[in-house]
Amino acid sequence: MGRVPTFHSPILSFKHIVAGAGRPSAGLRWLLTILSLAAILMGCSGGADKETVAAAGSAGKLTIYSGRSSSLVDPIIQQFGRASGIKIAVKYANTAQLAATLLEEGDRTPADIFFAQDPGGLAAVEHMLATLDATILGRVPDWARSPDGKWVGLSGRARTVVYNTETLTEADLPDDMFGFTDPKWKGRIGWAPTNASFQTMVSAMRSLWGEDKTLRWLEGIQGNDPKVYPKNTPQVAAVATGEIDVGFVNHYYIFRFLAEEGESFPARNYHPRTGGPGATVMVAGAGVLAASENKEVAQRFLEFMLSKVGQQYFAGQTFEYPLVEGVKTPRVLTPLSGFSHPDIPIKDLGDLKGTQDLLRRAGVTP
Questions:
Q1: What confidence tens digit (pLDDT) does each residue in 300-322 have?
Q2: What integer best gives the mean pLDDT of the chain?
C-alpha cells in the first residue's frame, strides 16, 4: 500500500487514547495545533481562504454542537476562531445524542452549527436547519449534500473491514459483508452498534438489501458472538493485538495508527470485493440552525471548512476524503475510484430512526 508518511499528526497519540491516559496539557495542545495548522497553511494556496476567514470579521461568537470527536476536528475549528477573531464554544458528544438534545431544545437551542458524523443525525433535525447559500452547496458534489439544501458534507468517509495481517489475507475474507454471518467467524468479529457510522452502514444495507436481509445479517453477526466496542479506534487496536480478527470501521483509522506505528503495524483495510454496504461512502456534514442569531458567521464557518485550508486539513491530517476539487490526498489513501462502492440516495442514509428500530428488533441494541 506504499510507504507510510512519517509525519506527526496533531491528533492525540492513539496509543495514548486507547490506553485511557489523560489529555496533554493546554500549553502542549496549543503548540501542537499551531504547528500543525501552520504546516497546512504553508502548503495551501491561501488567497481565497484568507478572504473567507477575514470576511467573518474580528468579533462575534459561534456555538457548535459537534458529533465528531474533539481529537479529530478541534484543531481546524479553533483555527477558524483564531484567524477570524470569533469566539467559539463547542459541545462534543455522540451525534445521536446531540440530535436528541436539539430536538428537545427546539427553538431555544443555543447552537448555531450542528456538525454531525453522518447524514442520519442531520436528517433527524433537518426541519430545524436553515437553507444554505447556493455558493456553499455548490462546492461539493450532489451526493454529498442535502437534497433540500439544509446541510452540506465537509468530508467523505468510507466503510471498510480492518483485519489482522498476521492471521488473515484478503483472500480469506468474504466477498461481501453477508459472508461474516458464516459460523466460522464466531468470536472473531468486532463491531460498534451504537456508533453513528456503523448505523449509517446499516441504513445502506436496508437501502441495498431490504429490511429482511438486513435483519438476517444483524442476527447472523449477533449469533457469531461479536465483541462490542464503543467506537472505531479500539476496534483497530483490538485487531492489531489479536483480540479480534476483523472489525467493521471507517477507512481512516488505520492510517493514523500506521503513521504512528509504521508499516509493521499488523492490521490493514479491506474493501469488500463486490462493494456493497461494507464499502459505503458517507459524509460528515454540518448545517446551520434556523433559530441561530449568528447565521452569517455560521455560514462563513462552513465556507472555511470547504476552503482549501479546511479540506487539506481533512485530507492530510485525518485521512478523510476531501469533497472539493483540487485538494491533494496522501498516497496511502485509496482513491474513491480504486474500490467498488454503492451509489445510495442520501435520503436512504438519513433514515436513522428506521435503522435504530431494526437494531432493537434484532436485539443488537436495547
A1: 999 999 999 999 999 999 999 99
A2: 86
Q: Residue 154: exposed, middle, or buried by beta-carbon count in 10 A (0-12, 13-18, 19+)?
A: buried
Contact 317/10 with Cβ under 8 angstroms? yes
Q: Can you tell me the distance from the alpha carbon of 124 to that of 274, in angstroms, rounded to the nearest whole number?
A: 31
Q: Which residue has the cell 448545517?
A: 287
Tell me if residue 300 falls in helix, strand or coil: helix
- Please, which residues have CB within 8 angstroms of residue 259's CB and are 6 or more apart in sequence? 4, 5, 6, 7, 9
Rounded distance between C-alpha atoms, residue 269 and residue 160, angstroms: 6
**pTM of the predicted model as reported, rounded to 2 decimal places:** 0.80
Query: 331-340 burial, b if ≥16 CB within 10 A, otherwise e?
Result: ebbbeeeebe
CA distance 351 to 346: 9
Do the Cβ atoms of 181 and 215 come closer than 8 Å?
no
Q: At what angle do helices 95-105 and 196-209 cross, to 10 degrees?
A: 90
Determine the length of the chain.
366
- Could you count the other beta carbons within 10 Å of the beta carbon of residue 319? 25
- Cβ count within 10 A of residue 317: 23
Predicted confidence (pLDDT) at residue 12 exceeds the cutoff of 80: no
Cell of 202: 446499516
DSSP string, 3-59: PPP----SSPPHHHHHTTPPPPPHHHHHHHHHHHHHHHHHTS--HHHHHHHHTT-S-
| Residue 322 to residue 207: CA distance in whole angstroms | 25
How does strand 189-191 pair with strand 152-164?
unpaired
44-75 pLDDT, tens digit each: 434 344 444 444 444 589 999 999 999 999 99
195 closest CA partner among 13, 18, 356? 356
Give whole-number Cα distances, 167 to 185, 226, 238, 268, 271, in Å: 13, 18, 13, 12, 18
Instruction: Kindly state the cell numbers that stand for 285.
Output: 456534514
